[in-house]
Amino acid sequence: MRNVFPTLAVWLLSSATIAAADRPNVVLIVADDLGYSELGCYGGRDIPTPHLDALARGGARFTSAYVTAPYCAASRAALLTGRYQTRFGFEFNPIGAQNTDPAIGLPVSERTLADHLREAGYATAIVGKWHQGGSAAYHPQRRGFDEFYGFLHEGHYYVPPPWPGHVTWLRRRVLPDGSQGRWTSPDGRVVWSTHLSGFEPDYDADNPLLRSSQPVEEVANLTEAFTREAVDFVARHKSQPFFLYLAYNAVHSPMQARDDYLERFAHIGDIQRRIFAAMLAQLDEGVGRVVERLRAEGLSDRTLIMFLSDNGGPTRELTSSNLPLRGEKGQLFEGGIRVPLILQWPCRIASGRVEARMVSALDLVPTALAAAGMKTPRNLDGADLVPFLAADRTTPIRTHHYWRVGGRAALREGGWKIHRASAGEAWQLYNLDEDPGEQRDLAVEEPSRLATLEAAWKQLDAQMVAPLWGGPAQRRQ
To answer: Residue 21: CB partners within 8 Å, gap ≥ 6?
Structure first.
């Protein structure tokens, strides 16, 4: 008997090692404010995105994927928990000084994907933007992440002032001569525009770049820096299952483009669009470097990669395109909530698949947990997508999707959608199968269908709670 226990211990250790090797890594990559149709694989033409297009060719690309809110923080709260954020009061978008309010953040009662995976033996890290609360209780390393490199608030300048090697586009209320329009500095390094009637938000105020909780000096463009940190995390954790949440702040404002990327798009006449193109190209190359590192480490086949945008593009601010969809960031029209979504997992998801069935960011937590061999908690609002991708294309993945942002509201059920722009306004009704651009309101022609969908929205809304804090001014979303 003396020899049984050492032998048993060796067998258990060996079994654990084999099990760990079988569990896939999970890499969740989020672009910030990326429009629906900017990527080449989604119809974009003027900005090449070869690395993201290759990711789509190697997996599944979704054409009816939704987020739960039309702006950053609330959308990410649902993405990280797998639950409608209105179930726990995270309804609005904290900005500026709100980020440091100890009453504002992802409630500590909610468990993140990082919480779940870390308890299953995964190494976990977030690189990039957090925006789930800026005070101590909400710090990423108290929310399931072993490592953190990034910032806590809604945005950040890409390089420290005076922004060397970059061209910067800024919102202003008035130009240096007191007029309205656009002004460019004599050296061409700074552009002011009054077309949005406001100042560029104070992104960097009380919002240092952090490693864990300690401020760091970073001279590289943040897209480059976040890519570097992500690649390093992959290399350091290649011998164990890991979860990497790579939350780029590109292509979110402030608009800043590095000179070498700008030069690639010299043919684009509008400097604002040229800056956007440069920012997107750098983001695309960053994703490509992460994918290449996974390949170089022999991890490609056992890594589930999920890429999406946190909401639709703010067209007037960034020039981003959501075509053929109507609307933009901050709105519950399709352009604010339907986003590009790509999943790649070579051993489980067939390459080149284009999936038109409705899915949600809510489905990504259950998908990742199932991939890791974990049980899906009953209180989640999504489903594991992988079995649906292996079966026929006729069974719906989701029957409906719900939205509420203050008085704004929407519900999609099948191919039909109701939309309300504000409290007290009449509901609109659209047939998305025939009218994805939401141009023809059918509320008067289809009153019974409208009533059925409104009742469905109210039934879901009754399950939600009141917001934990009030909403910000809409122009600062």
So the answer is: 302
Q: Cβ neighbours of residue 227 under 8 Å, at least 6 residues apart? A: 285, 286, 289, 290
Active site residues: 72, 131
What domains sit in the chain, N to C, each tagged with a CATH number? 22-159+206-390 (3.40.720.10), 400-476 (3.30.1120.10)
Q: Which strands, in side-by-side order, build the sheet including 428-431?
A: 400-405, 408-413, 416-420, 428-431
Q: Could you report the per-residue pLDDT of 343-401, keeping only the tens digit for each? A: 999 989 999 999 999 999 999 999 999 999 999 999 999 999 999 998 777 899 999 99
Q: Which residues of 44-53 are buried (b: 16+ CB within 10 A; e: fewer)?
A: beebbbebbb
User: For residue range 173-211, what is the model confidence (pLDDT) as tens digits?
Assistant: 999 999 999 999 999 999 999 999 999 999 999 999 999
Q: Let me know if 255 is exposed, middle or buried by CB neighbors in 10 A (0-12, 13-18, 19+).
A: buried
Helix (H, G, I), strand (E, B) or coil at 125: strand
Question: CB neighbours of 245 closer than 8 A, spacing ≥ 6?
Answer: 28, 30, 80, 113, 114, 124, 125, 126, 127, 128, 145
Q: Which residues of the chain have pLDDT under 50?
A: 1-18, 473-477
What pLDDT shows up at residue 112? Answer: 98
- If we measure between CA atoms, which residue out of 29, 17, 32 comes closest to residue 231? 29
Of 99, 69, 62, nearest in space to 83 by CA: 69
Q: Judge contact between 276 and 320, C-beta under 8 A.
A: yes
- Contact by Cβ (8 Å): 287, 248: no
CA gap 94, 473 in Å, rounded: 10
Which strand (E) or helix (H) includes residue 208? none
Which residues have a Cβ under 8 Å from the Cβ of 269 and sit 6 or more positions away?
none
Residue 20: predicted pLDDT: 60
Of the candidates 379, 407, 365, the residue with the CA atom closest to the CA atom of residue 463 = 379
* Contact between 191 and 170 (Cβ < 8 Å): yes
Is-contact 359 398, C-beta < 8 A? Answer: yes
Residue 235 identity (one-letter amino acid):
A
